[in-house]
Design brief:
Layout: H1 3-9, H2 13-23, H3 34-37, H4 39-51, E1 56-60, H5 66-74, E2 79-83, H6 86-95, E3 102-106, H7 109-115, E4 122-127, H8 137-147, E5 150-156, H9 179-189, E6 192-196, E7 210-214, H10 217-224, E8 229-230
Parallel strand pairs: 1-2, 1-4, 2-3, 4-5
Antiparallel strand pairs: 5-7, 6-7, 6-8
Helix pairs in contact: 2-6, 7-8, 8-9
């Protein structure tokens, strides 16, 4: 370790992240750009902004803020985002500087969602705070559907039934991001599931899967009419 690296290591993690933003610009677009560099996923989000018209956007798992910046630029609604890693918070804070509609928080995603008080009723949630053994996803979904009048949820890194080309996260028994993981929650809250209609072979970037969840009948109807989305196969 050089003397410069040693001195930087003594700084608070959030300040280290801010410095990384300026001195290592190649880190500003992890995973190939917003939404994992996936053109198809960005098209889905743009369609949701148009047809769902969210009054607020909430993100868990800011990471370095690349997807956050894209969402804030495509929708005038306020964007609330939370990140657990302090270094990433510092990096993202610099990346999102100047965006007046973004508010970034540091902390556990479950506490963030539980404490969030939104005046808006139609809220789009982008859940991407899954990086290890302590998987917060089930609790995130529960909090969202208990608190929010009209939520629409997109979960990143989720298995797409019938298309093995889309990647997904698997943290071991009971912690794989697959339809079975959310089955009980879907039943409890009356949620419908929707997946990308675009075959993975035609997707760009990292080709990570996702699922959209909604319970409000009007929102479900909107998603069902979107040609970019599809319902899961009956046998899944």
């Amino acid at each position: 370790m050089s003397a410069k690296q040693f001195l930087v290591s003594l700084l608070p993690d959030s300040l280290q992240g801010r410095l990384l933003y300026h001195f290592r610009p190649a880190l500003r677009q992890p995973w190939g750009g917003p939404f994992n560099g996936q053109d198809g996923r960005r098209a889905i989000f743009d369609s949701l902004v148009k047809n769902f018209a969210p009054e607020a956007i909430v993100e868990t798992g800011t990471f370095r803020g690349d997807t956050t910046r894209y969402m804030a630029g495509r929708c005038a609604a306020p964007v609330y985002t939370a990140e657990f890693d302090a270094r990433n918070v510092g990096f993202a804070s610099e990346n999102l500087r100047g965006l007046s509609n973004v508010r970034i928080s540091h902390g556990d995603s479950r506490a963030f969602l539980d404490n969030l008080r939104l005046p808006q009723s139609r809220v789009f949630f982008y859940l991407d705070a899954h990086w290890g053994e302590d998987l917060p996803l089930a609790e995130e979904i529960r909090i969202i559907f208990e608190k929010t009048p009209v939520p629409l949820v997109m979960i990143d890194d989720f298995k797409v039934p019938g298309d093995a080309g889309y990647g997904y996260d698997d943290y071991g028994a009971g912690s794989a991001l697959i339809p079975e993981y959310i089955e009980a929650l879907c039943s409890r809250f009356g949620m419908s599931q929707f997946y990308p209609a675009l075959p993975s072979a035609l997707e760009t970037g990292a080709r990570r899967g996702c699922v959209l969840l909604a319970a409000d009948p009007a929102v479900v109807a909107t998603l069902a009419a979107d040609p970019l989305l599809k319902k899961p196969p009956l046998h899944s």
